[in-house]
Structures are given as C-alpha cells and as structure tokens.
Amino acid sequence: MASPVNSSAQPSSMAARSEPVRNKSHDPKKPHITDQAITKSNWYKHVNWLNVTLIIGVPIYGFIAAYSTPLQWKTAVFTVVYYFMTGLGITAGYHRLWAHTSYSARLPLKIYLAAVGAGAVQGSIRWWSRDHRAHHRYTDTDKDPYSVRKGLLYSHIGWMVMKQNPKRIGRTDISDLNDCPVVVWQHRNYIKCVIFMGMIFPCLVTGFGWGDWKGGFIYSGILRIFIVQQATFCVNSLAHWLGDQPFDDRNSPRDHVVTALVTLGEGYHNFHHEFPSDYRNAIEWHQYDPTKWSIWMWKQLGLAYDLKQFKQNEIEKGRLQQLQKKLDQKRQTLDWGVPLEQLPIIDWDDYQTEAKGGRALVAVAGVVHDVTDFIREHPGGKALITSGIGKDATAIFNGGVYNHSNAAHNLLSTMRVGVLRGGCEVEIWKRAQRENKDISFVSDSAGKKIIRAGSQVTRIAEPVASADAA
Ligand SMILES: [Zn+2]
Ligand SMILES: [Zn+2]
Prior knowledge:
By secondary structure, the chain is mainly alpha-helical. The chain has 20 helices and eight strands. A hairpin with a 2-residue loop joins strand 4 and strand 5 (367-370).
C-alpha cells in the first residue's frame, strides 16, 4: 500500500496548484539511480535505506526488546484495539474514502481517519492515494507502483525497500485531495502526525492508563505498526496472487477469504478492481469486511453519508460474463465432432455403396456417421445398430426403435463423417431451424457453435412421420 516515510522521498507526479511539500533535492533532469543496472558496486545506492530502517530495522529491534518486556493483558487488549483503529484508518480512510471517494465523511470522521491513518505509518493520505489511483489505472503495467507482475515480494515490500523512479509511476488526478484541508494539513505535518499517532499516543494510553510505558512503546507502538503495515501490504501482494477471479480474469486482482481476514476486509480484490467506487469489498453478508461494517455504522451515527454502491444488476452482469468466458474455455477443450459446414457432401447412392462395401455408415437426420468402432460398444446391442447401416435411421434413432438420450446424440455427433446431398432430414432440420428459433445456434467467443442440451442436429423433436407429412 504505501511506504512509511515518503512525502519527501518522492515528489508528486502531478504538478498540482497547492503542492504542499516538494522534494527540493529532486532534479527531474538528472538521471535517476534506477536508470542504472544493479551491480556489485552500486547496489547499496538502489536501496531506500530510510524505508529499510523503518519497515525492517525498527521491527527487528521491537522483537528483540519484546523478549525483555513482559506483555500486560491491558496492553495486549489496547494493542489489538489500536491495531483495528489504525488499520481501519488505512482501509476505510486512506483507501475507500480518499483514494476512491466511495462515500463522504463529515469533518470529525475525516480528522479521526487522518489521525489513526497516520498511526498506521504508511505515508500521507495524499501520497498514498496518488499511488493507489495509479495502481488502479495502470494495474499490472510498469506504471503500476506495486505491480505484482514484478514478483510477489516486489509487490509486497520490494517497491519500498528499493528506490523507485518517480517518473515511472503513472499520472493520476488528485486535485480533489488537494482541495481537502484535512488531507493537505496531514501531508504538511506528516512527520509530526506519524510520531505522535504511531508512537507517542499509544505510550500515553498505556503509560497513564496502567503505568506500562515500555509495553506501550514496544507492543502498541513498534510491533503494532509492523503488523498493520505487513497486513495492508498484503493487499498489494496476496490480493493480486491468491484466490478466484469471479468478475474479470484479464488482470491479477483476486478474491480470497484469507486475504480478507488479514486486511480488514480488503480481500475481495477482484470485485474491488471492477467496482472501485463501491464502498464495499465484500458484497455477501457472510463475507468478512469490517471496513464496510464500520462505514455503515458511521452512516447510522450520521458521520458518513452518500455511500456508493454499484447496482446488483451490473455486478451480476460482470459475474455472468466471466462465467461465460470460463464456459467457452471449457467448451473449447471438448470434442463436438466435425462442424456440419466442414463435412463433405455425400450422394445417397455413394452412401449406400460405401455402406454395402463394409463401412458401417448410418445416416441420421441427413448426417452420415461412421459407427464402425462403436458397433461392439453399442449399449442396445450389435443387432439394432447394424440394422440401421446404409439406411435412413432418423426415425429409428429418434424413438422409432429407441428414443436416444441427449448423451447419445452428443456421442453420435463425434462420429459424423458427411452430410447427404439434399438429404430430406437435413432439409427438415433446416426448416425447423428457421421456424423454431430454439434450435438456431449461437457462437461462443471462439466462433464455435454452442450446442445446447437437446439441440444436436440429429435430434428430431417432432415425430418424423408428421415432419414427412408437413
Ligand atoms: Zn489492487
Ligand atoms: Zn483500491
């Protein structure tokens, strides 16, 4: 999601009117370190040492210090509570309120979310939202700041521990954020906000609350920051790597309950990339999305309003189209027999001659089938199937002797070798096709005919006798 300290590390790719903080040492004309390949002699110049210290170094210190710091239960409870508060600052605040404007918040809620969001130590709202909008706009491309196509580890943490060329990241419009006084104030005072909300505030609670200053520093401060950072980083890595793609599989975002559990409900990421302005990530009531529940609760309290929701009809359309795509892919792996239009046209006389010559040919509804290899396997016995050889077996096959199942028609279609010239049953089928739209064929995405159950060409719905009479 974002790097701990960045407001000064990376200048905005948007030259906005009210650019609050600019990296004065950055000269866009000077070649960036990322323009050089990583070698044994320059690798350390590629590393963002400040982020390495904050994301990796400080937590290591925290884990070591935890050995000599007993964990008091009150501190443990507060750490979990503050974990949720700061985590929701990112998911409900940074992400769904500011990056996607999926709902509107009253000023007190904005201030609260900006404060606890800073306590999660993931950069300013302004910086975070700009990168996140680029991530949505340029998902999986080189302009995506944390593209999973560069590897799972890169999308999780690599993009922060290695220096990034700010020119690489795709441009996005953040003029609305530049107009939000809470966002601008937090961006200008970001370092102060982080130190206070990340470290001092939890220490004050545990220290004044029950005298556990050190526990507050190590558990509610350092280790809580580490966990909330790793959890939200999972939205960039895990949510683009693990799970299903029920809405669109052209890009990497995926839905998975494990990611949802880790990220306070941000795990339905395939849905989220399809419908980013929806205030929900989980659309089913039983799916875990405490971020959605919080926003809904704030609405009941009058703190949030204008919660955006995509129409269920649109959501189901997306789901259906993806299902259709999967069906098409599955259909293309199956043998449906040679398409009728590619079959050779055989004269009735030639058909009979070949059949008499020993080839087990059976004509059903004007289509000629070679059943030589199937005779011994015929469930109805050898005698019945051989009685149809060299004849028009349309009526026999369609109820005259045995009304064959859809599966039998499917199997028969894989044996077809030709169509009869002017075959009267083919004519009947053609006419039926014209008259009865149910039999008209639809093509799938590969242009192959979709053969629905009961609509094989060899299946004659009406009794053949009446069709003859028609
Ligand atoms: Zn994503
Ligand atoms: Zn998003």
